[in-house]
Write a structure and sequence with these properties.
CATH class of the largest domain: Mainly Beta
Largest sheet: 5 strands, antiparallel
Shape: globular
Oligomer: single chain
Order of helices and strands: HHEEHEEEEEHEEEEHH
CATH topology of the largest domain: Jelly Rolls
Number of strands: 11
Strand content: 15-25%
Number of domains: 2
Distance between the termini: 33 Å
CATH superfamily of the largest domain: B-lactam Antibiotic, Isopenicillin N Synthase, Chain
């Protein structure tokens, strides 16, 4: 975040307080292979990346991460793609000893679009794939407000936790929990 702050013309410690005792998480994601029979039964044509072939299919729909910065370790199995500025999907090869860096939606908003969220997706390759993302996140009570280099009315300030909770409860594994944050806060 220090490098990003400097790139925006801010002091290197500008974001530090927002991330002290943050909500960062580390996950292990497994993308199991799908059998030919499973793939043949897929009715949604939006799953297929290349028409008339079962070799390239979506296992992770196109999306941007919600937060700030994601560092991603890949296991050596191809499949990750990022959308380029011209709209094409490009492979992000799994190179030994490297991390992929994705920027998130809140960082894009906080930087007034100067830093764009990285749209990405994952394709199935008929073999098991693992990835390990580290989601670098601010404190729940950190206020996200326009930067001092922007007009103060660029957007309405908001607590990061409110944004994250709304985003999380849109995921299938958290459906039905939308009201729980308010209940727990009282």
């Amino acid at each position: 975040m220090g490098s990003l702050a400097r790139s925006l013309g801010l002091s290197s410690g500008y974001f530090d307080d927002s991330f002290r005792h943050g909500l960062s998480t580390l996950r292990l994601i497994r993308y199991p292979p799908r059998s030919a029979a499973d793939l043949a039964a897929v009715a949604d044509p939006g799953v297929w990346v290349e028409p008339h072939t079962m070799d390239r299919h979506l296992v992770g729909a196109p999306h941007t991460d919600s937060g700030f910065v994601t560092l991603l370790a890949q296991d050596g199995v191809a499949g990750l793609q990022a959308r380029s500025r011209d709209g094409d999907w490009i492979d992000v090869p799994p190179l030994e000893g490297t991390l992929v860096v994705n920027f998130g939606q809140v960082l894009e908003q906080w930087s007034a679009g100067r830093i764009r969220a990285t749209e990405h997706r994952v394709l199935g390759e008929r073999v098991e794939r693992y990835s390990i993302p580290f989601f670098y996140e601010a404190r729940a009570d950190a206020t996200i407000a326009p930067l001092p280099i922007d007009a103060p009315d660029k957007f309405a300030p908001f607590p990061y936790g409110d944004f994250l909770w709304k985003r999380m409860t849109s995921f299938v594994e958290f459906r039905g929990m939308e009201g729980e944050r308010n209940v727990a806060a009282h």
